[in-house]
UniProtKB/TrEMBL annotation:
<dbReference type="InterPro" id="IPR018244">
    <property type="entry name" value="Allrgn_V5/Tpx1_CS"/>
</dbReference>
<dbReference type="Pfam" id="PF00188">
    <property type="entry name" value="CAP"/>
</dbReference>
<comment type="subunit">
    <text>Homodimer. Interacts with CAV1.</text>
</comment>
<dbReference type="GO" id="GO:0000139">
    <property type="term" value="C:Golgi membrane"/>
</dbReference>
<feature type="domain" description="SCP">
    <location>
        <begin position="45"/>
        <end position="178"/>
    </location>
</feature>
<comment type="similarity">
    <text>Belongs to the CRISP family.</text>
</comment>
<keyword id="KW-0472">Membrane</keyword>
<dbReference type="GO" id="GO:0005576">
    <property type="term" value="C:extracellular region"/>
</dbReference>
<dbReference type="InterPro" id="IPR001283">
    <property type="entry name" value="CRISP-related"/>
</dbReference>
<keyword id="KW-0519">Myristate</keyword>
<keyword id="KW-0175">Coiled coil</keyword>
<keyword id="KW-0449">Lipoprotein</keyword>
<dbReference type="InterPro" id="IPR034113">
    <property type="entry name" value="SCP_GAPR1-like"/>
</dbReference>
<dbReference type="InterPro" id="IPR035940">
    <property type="entry name" value="CAP_sf"/>
</dbReference>
<protein>
    <recommendedName>
        <fullName>Golgi-associated plant pathogenesis-related protein 1</fullName>
    </recommendedName>
</protein>
<keyword id="KW-0333">Golgi apparatus</keyword>
<dbReference type="InterPro" id="IPR014044">
    <property type="entry name" value="CAP_dom"/>
</dbReference>
Amino acid sequence: AKHKDPLCPPPAFVFSDSIWISKRCRLPSLQIPESLNRKDRASKQFAEEVLKAHNDYRKKHGVPPLKLCKKLNTGAQQYAEELATTRVLKHSSESANGKCGENLAWASYDQPGKDVADRWYSEIKNYSFQNPGFSSGTGHFTAMVWKNTKKMGVGKASASDGSTFVVARYDPAGNVVNPGYYEENVLPPRK
């Protein structure tokens, strides 16, 4: 069957970030505000920076790298925006219900992704590999390096006072307190 629509000849698509654009169809163009493009690029860049830092640390512990998940990114971003609006740092119901693991961070300034990951990972100094288990003082670290976790999502939002809230979500969730799980999933760094 031959395509006969004179206004829209056979499509020739290009992929631009997350929008398919027809190069031939003579329709009014969709104008995307430049500020939205910058925000989306910044969000993607921030998520990739946090992911890279996670994977650099995970490599030190001999565990597989994480991959960014669009669904987790979306949920993390929405929750970061909620935290920035309420300016209360508390875990989400998704995390409390075990649907995902979750790390949160707050700072009075615009936090670079590597700095956030470095702060979470710094809890390693309080973790006992000889007596493994959950501790509120090491939960960010153990979530980052949890061997069985495969995917993550990242969101960041600014509050009206300029402070920033960061949410990282993990699937499957780590910090499972069943017997033997910490020994199997939180491995000491390789020499």
